[in-house]
Design goal:
Elements (H helix, E strand, L loop, with lengths): L3 E7 L3 E8 L6 E9 L6 H12 L5 E6 L5 E7 L4 H13 L9 E8 L6 E9 H13 L6 E4 L2 H10 L6 E6 L3 E8 L2 E9 L8 E3 L6 E3 L5 H18 L7 E6 L5 H10 L3 E4 L7 E2 L7 H4 L5 H11 L18 H51 L9 H15 L12 H11 L6 E9 L2 E8 L2 H11 L5 E11 L6 E9 L3
Parallel strand pairs: 1-4, 3-16, 4-8, 9-14, 14-15
Antiparallel strand pairs: 1-2, 2-3, 5-7, 6-7, 9-10, 10-11, 12-13, 17-18, 18-20, 19-20
Length: 497
């Protein structure tokens, strides 16, 4: 089942909301509602009307507030680590604003700077304001996961989806106020709220039937637009935008052509009407004409859901003591999902262990059969096989004992051990020929011939290095008349291990 997301955009003149369903570019707007804010009606009543028309059913909710509700500051800091900035930013702002660090909620956008410093766009609002609005929304069972600045999502959409040369400005015009956002080097680095219709000189209102914006005093439109252009030019000049900087303009008005033409005439800017590319399909809605939904009336609400769903990180003021906490029902569903995954992992692990155990048992049986086959081939006369490995070891030990010197088994050295050690100890460079060797329980005697008496001494010294023999003695060394060689006999006493 596709996820449903509710998004609400809050201004001092309009409340707009939409519920979207689907994933990615297949997301559809199912319901879209707008409610005009009037002084005669309390905000709780307006929210109740909005939620009633929206048919809200506890979906995940994101809320954006117009820039007029925030204060913004640009700072240069010598680091870009998010955790460090979050810690020091409230204290840095204390020197620039009247509020103390424990009275405000702050978030920021980190931009690349120069000379080792980073340009930080900080936005903040008071704890009292945020607590009041959260209480108001909770009356109608709304607990938003994200609270951010209106227009950031739409500016991000333009940055990622439109081929617009940077830097550029995004201008959104409401009934009474406008917001200006600058995008440069792939990031947002400036946000300001501007007055569009001061003192309701024109008195723009939303027609309750057609939902089109109409002026109560159309004769004042030209004068109000000129005043707005003056404020806009002053703001753009103050932030140092180059001439002919492109401004993407959107707003609640069905026909933005007159506004755009006036701004172009009154400034050195190049304004373009922001088009919506139709990537969000609009569903059927009996409360509003479809033509209204395709305008920018719901742009900020719709873009907020889409950009968050894409994983775009926006400012979020649900932090600190205002951090979003999931309800028991949401936590229960998450726990059930986690439990299901854990159970699957346990079952899978058990199945793997069972399979692994079966493989080991099969290998053990195969090795046992091989051992029994070797045993029968080696000892064909033994018919009773109890422990073939142990029985083979006993037989090997008996064979070793039979090969010990003298056959009595008192020494741990076999005849082969003695032969090998003598051969290893006598250097190959010596001219020596062994003719006879006698091994008994008294030790070892070797007889042979060599070239001179010094060689006999060399043989004795070499054998004294052996770990097998504890004593080496020359019994005799004489000149043999027949061969003219030295005939010798050496006695070796065996040690015990």
């Amino acid at each position: 089942m596709s996820s449903r997301i509710c998004s609400i955009d809050v201004g001092n003149d309009l409340l707009s909301a939409a519920i979207l369903q689907g994933e990615g570019r297949k997301k559809q707007t199912l319901v879209y509602v707008v409610v005009e804010v009037v002084d005669s009606r309390p905000i709780e009543e307006l929210f109740a009307e909005l939620i009633s028309k929206l048919n809200y059913q506890g979906e995940a909710c994101y809320v954006s507030f117009n820039a007029e509700f925030f204060k913004f500051r640009n700072l240069l800091l010598p680091f870009s680590d998010r955790k460090t900035i979050d810690k020091v930013l409230p204290f840095e702002l204390e020197e620039l604003v009247s509020e103390s660090s424990d009275e405000i909620v702050v978030d920021s956008i980190i931009n690349k700077g120069t000379d080792g410093k980073h340009d930080i766009l900080a936005a903040f609002l008071s704890n009292e304001f945020l607590a009041s609005w959260l209480a108001t929304m909770q009356i109608v069972d709304i607990d938003p996961e994200i609270i951010t600045v209106s227009g950031l999502a739409s500016a991000t959409r333009l940055l990622t989806e439109k081929n617009i040369s940077e830097p550029f400005l995004y201008l959104y015009i409401g009934l009474q106020r406008a917001s200006l956002i600058r995008i440069e080097s792939g990031s947002i680095n400036f946000v300001r709220s501007l007055i569009f219709d001061p003192g309701m000189e024109v008195g723009y209102q939303l027609n309750p039937t057609t939902r089109h914006v109409v002026p109560l005093r159309p004769e004042n439109v030209e004068h109000a637009l000129k005043n707005f252009c003056t404020e806009l030019n002053q703001t753009i000049l103050a932030i140092g935008c180059p001439e002919k900087t492109v401004i993407q303009v959107a707003g609640v008005y069905g026909d933005m052509v007159e506004i755009v033409e006036t701004i172009n005439t009154q400034s050195n800017l190049s304004c373009e009407i922001t088009d919506r590319d139709g990537s969000i399909a609009m569903g059927d809605n009996s409360s509003l004409p479809v033509v209204d939904a395709t305008s920018s009336l719901f742009a900020h609400a719709i873009d907020l859901s889409v950009q968050v769903n894409k994983g775009v990180t926006l400012m979020n003021f649900r932090k600190g003591s205002f951090v979003f906490k999931r309800s028991f029902a949401e936590n229960k569903s998450i726990l059930l999902a986690v439990a299901a995954v854990v159970c699957c992992a346990i079952v899978g692990s058990f199945a793997y262990l069972l399979y692994d155990y079966t493989q080991i048992v099969n290998k053990k049986d195969a090795v046992t059969q091989e051992i029994r086959a070797v045993f029968k081939k080696t000892l064909p006369g033994v018919t009773r096989i109890v422990d073939p490995v142990q029985q083979l070891q006993v037989e090997v030990n008996n064979l070793k004992a039979g090969n010990r010197e003298g056959g009595d088994g008192n020494s741990s050295f076999t005849v082969l051990d003695i032969f090998a050690d003598i051969s290893r100890q006598i250097p190959a460079s010596l001219d020596v020929s062994l003719k006879r060797m006698i091994i008994d329980d008294k030790g070892v005697r070797i007889m042979g011939f060599t070239d001179n008496f010094n060689t006999v001494d060399a043989i004795k010294k070499a054998l004294e290095q052996s770990a097998i023999f504890v004593e080496v003695d020359i019994n005799s060394a004489n000149l043999d008349q027949k061969s003219s060689k030295i005939k010798f006999e050496i006695k070796l006493d065996l040690g015990e291990v």
